[in-house]
Amino acid sequence: MAPPPPNNGRRTDRQGWHMSEFLQFLFSGITVGSVYALVALGFILIFNASGVVNFAQGEFVMLGGMITYFTYAAGVPLAAAAVFAIVVTCVVGVALNKLAIEPARGASVVALIIITIGASIFLRGLAQVVFDKQLHRFPSISGDDPIAIGGATILPQSLWIVGGALAAFLALYLFFARTLTGKAVVATANNKLAAQLVGIGTNNMMTLSFALAAAVGALGGVLMTPITLTSYDVGLTLALKGFAGAILGGMGSPFGALVGGLLVGLIEAMTAGYISSEYKDAVAFIVILLVLFVMPNGLFGRSALERV
Amino acid sequence: MSGLSVRTATLLALALIVVLAPVLFPSSFYYRVGALIFVNGLATMGLVILVGYAGQVSLGHAGFVGIGAYACALGPVYLGLPQILCVVLGAAISALLAFLVGRPILKLKAHYLAVATLGLGILIYMVIYNEGWLTGGPDGMDVQPLGVRELLKDYGIKVGSSELWYWISGVVLLVGAFVALNLHNSPAGRALRSLHDSEVAASTIGIDVARMKLTAFVISSVYASVAGSQVALMNRFVTPDVAGFIHSVELLTMAVLGGAASVMGAVVGATILTALPQVLTVFEDFEHVLLGLIMMLVMIFLREGLVPSLARRMRRSVS
Amino acid sequence: MLVDEINAAGGVNGEMIQLVMYDDGADANKARTFATRMVEDDEVVAVVGGSSTGATMAMIPVFEEAGIPFISLAGAVVIIDPVKKWVFKTPHTDRMACGKIYEDMNKRGISKIGIIGGTGGFGKSMHEQCVDVAPDYGIDIVAQETYGPKDADMTPQLTKIAGTEGLQAVLNPGFGQGPAIVTRNYAQLGIDVPLYQSHGVASKSFIELAGDAAEGVRLPASALLVADKLPDSDPQKSVVVAYRDAYEAATGEPVSTFGGHAYDGFKILIAAIERAGSSDPAAIRDEIEKTTGFMGTAGEVNMSPTDHLGLDLSAFRMLEIKDGDWTLVE
């Protein structure tokens, strides 16, 4: 395609390699990767507690953005609208668990995948009827003036997204490692029967994890909408990328989800910048396939002993 | 019921449906829907072998449908092949690809396998979508007709496109069902089904687990590819959507909805998901809401899928 | 809206129109099935629709074979070039949009441009057409990048384009959220050459989504978007103002050019049925082909056996976004 860009006044460290360009790709990758990481965190929350891969996780993100927009458009202050959206999405998450996942206890992995895909189609269809099919956006938290760093720029909202992903990761990490409730969730995931025997209310643990996953997803939707825009159908792509990130990280630890999500975003941005923008999604999936071939449990996953 | 009678009964029932259903068709539009059901039913049968028999999941099977479809779109233009050979070529390419990637992919368990097959499907889709110089890109490309109608015309027989494809896809479906049912009862089929229950147990009694899984994957890719070729030839036009993730999910849903281990279930699942959008045009805006709802309800209340669950209920009420 | 109006006024040739509607969801296979359903089951005499090029192309064999006139609402030039007996369309082609943009570039002395195109059907087709006709206008495309229809950030691609020497303008063929995000990223990176969008962003929501970043962006669009700002002498003014008022009264939403294309298609079809004096598809087809001097929301339509679109470049207006609103450039 185009010849390599000549040096027109940019900072160059080596021939043909621009620091500022690299930084721009990096910022883009981190921004998008943080969104994926938030989706991936939601995935592993539910997976850890119930072994269910929730394909409706992307719809939580969509609901976060759409409900915030419509509440804000109705005259509610943005912060209140965002909180309202997160709370409503939590309720949807709990309802999903109570009405669709709990009644299907003991169903096969494929059946559970179909149920959550069904839930995702259902929520998307509902959003299309309740809201609309248009694209929407609401204002950024700290304005739209880009911050210049080393010849590249980043939007303040990107920093909010990155901060949101880090905060969600830290909160979950501390929750699982330090609190009794968090340990109970882990115990439920490891061995449901044993957890019940030591007096853990496993149903409550699952409800809790769905609520938390919905909240993390909705938070992602609230933070990303000023940059990425939202509409009733943004969920599917996000779910695929977030799922890929969670798997890459090893489908288990919050740390793996964070790193996996960020990696998918970075691979996409670097591929678009240095190789081909047409195949950036493909490269992300090729990397995932290769990682899985070499490490069948992802980057940070522990191999589980199979019970016979 | 013995295995033999299930096989014969299923084949007979399918043949009767194919032959008798047209009696109820008020217009040739219904032939078109019937043909779509048979084609989807064939692809779904492939998934029944993979998911139902061998217990492996695939979220990227539409990729093989895409290979079959584009083999028929590209073969005549670039290789000058007659369409019937293009169907074979597509199936061969699909089988080869499934064979090559199958081994590493099928080592993976449950969700890792799901994401790996998802990635495979998306990669195939992206090649078709991005290589516009070859495939026409997102706007799709024309497909040369099979030539059967012209041939029949020479003999003085005039058939509509929808009618013709109803009969072709109906016969192909019966052949597919015959193969799938025989596989079910063969030693290989029994070995496959033992994987479904426990791979560890299967390997301890001397079954080559990896090879059996690979076999199922390759067979199911051929089913999907032949279905894709038929869609392309029937529509005489093809877009990358046939290889898309949504289509993969549709196929998997058809398989699981009808009953993932049942050949009859594949046809029932395909019928429901193919006919539903036509019925739901009345509800227009609520099409997706209802579709999602049906998927969830069936999986919650009829966990093994419609056909096995209903069959069990009927048996219980008889005894 | 239109059908109710006509039937209330006594129908066409004394017969009521019956409207059969399906949503093809821009899915080719689905469109094909609905097309068969219309022809075989609903026994329609003519069809208006097909919002995406893929869906349109999938339906064409059905209507060609059945001999049913079909007025498509999709953009790509392949629909009517080469001319197909039963197929017409109302929206300007993407090739014309490229031409209109290049004319404007020529006036501003711009000759070296970069293209960042969406990979959706619309963006990809227009991207190819713009590369194809560039030499006719002396335009040199020095950089090309693409992005996916659901992408959230295009700064890497824009950074690459901005680093190309001699760049004088950037063109973004695309549809949906892509153009709004490109426009915002463009402002974020502080790229200081003009940005051109396509007719794919032709509704007010683009300005809302892109915000301040949209200032100074130019695009070709139908007169519908600037109904009020047309001079009174403009022959199209009364048509577009009437449509806009009727549409906004009926739906409460601001007009977009896509609704206009459907409106034009219906108007052309109804007039053709009236002239044909029957509901015979072949007679209707012949009359659609004879459409001349029809003033629609997209411009003046003059069809002929060799032109099943009937619009020329004058149907497009070059707009620039100023102070959050469209303004006419000419």
Could you describe the 3D structure shown?
- The complex is a heterotrimer of chains A (308), B (319) and C (330).
- The longest helix of chain A has 32 residues.
- In chain A, strand 3 and strand 4 form a beta hairpin.
- By secondary structure, chain A is mainly α.
- Chain B has one domain.
- In chain B, helix 3 runs antiparallel to helix 4 and helix 9 crosses helix 11.
- Chain B starts with a helix and ends with a helix.
- The mean pLDDT of chain B is 86.
- The relative contact order of chain C is 0.13.
- Chain C contains eleven helices and twelve strands.
- At the A-B interface, helix 4, helix 9 and helix 11 of A face helix 5, helix 10, helix 12 and helix 14 of B.
Question: Which helices and strands, and how do they pair?
Answer:
The complex is a heterotrimer of chains A (308), B (319) and C (330).
Chain A: E1 12-14, E2 17-18, H1 19-50, H2 57-73, H3 78-101, H4 109-130, E3 147-149, E4 152-154, H5 156-178, H6 180-190, H7 192-197, H8 202-228, H9 235-249, H10 254-275, H11 280-294
Antiparallel strand pairs in A: 1-2, 3-4
Chain B: H1 3-20, H2 29-53, H3 62-79, H4 83-106, H5 110-130, H6 132-135, E1 141-142, H7 148-154, H8 161-185, H9 187-197, H10 199-204, H11 209-235, E2 237-238, H12 245-258, H13 263-279, H14 287-301, H15 306-318
Antiparallel strand pairs in B: 1-2
Helix pairs in contact in B: 1-8, 2-8, 2-11, 2-12, 2-13, 3-4, 3-5, 3-11, 4-11, 8-9, 9-11, 12-13
Chain C: H1 2-8, H2 28-42, E1 47-49, H3 53-66, E2 70-72, E3 87-89, H4 94-107, E4 112-118, H5 121-133, E5 140-147, H6 155-162, E6 169-172, H7 177-188, E7 195-197, H8 204-210, E8 218-221, H9 237-251, H10 257-276, H11 281-289, E9 294-295, E10 300-301, E11 317-322, E12 325-328
Parallel strand pairs in C: 1-2, 2-3, 4-5, 4-6, 6-7
Antiparallel strand pairs in C: 8-11, 9-10, 11-12
Helical/strand content category of chain C: alpha/beta
Alpha-carbon Rg of chain A, integer: 20 Å
Q: Characterize the biggest β-sheet of chain C.
A: 4 strands, parallel
Determine the strand fraction of chain A and express it as a percent band. Answer: under 5%
Number of strands of chain A: 4
User: From the coordinates shown, what is the CATH architecture of chain A?
Assistant: Orthogonal Bundle
CATH class group of chain A: Mainly Alpha
Low-confidence sequence ranges of chain C:
none
SSE pattern of chain C, N- to C-terminal: HHEHEEHEHEHEHEHEHHHEEEE
Question: What is the number of helical segments of chain A per DSSP (H or I, 4+ residues)?
Answer: 11
| Beta-strand content bin of chain C | 5-15%
Compute the separation of the termini of chain A in Å.
Answer: 55 Å
**Shape by Cα distribution of chain A:** globular
Oligomer: heterotrimer
Radius of gyration of CA atoms of chain C, rounded to a whole number: 20 Å
CATH fold category name of chain A? ABC transporter involved in vitamin B12 uptake, BtuC
- How many domains of chain C? The number is 2
Largest sheet of chain A: 2 strands, antiparallel
Helical amount among residues of chain C, as a percent range? 40-55%
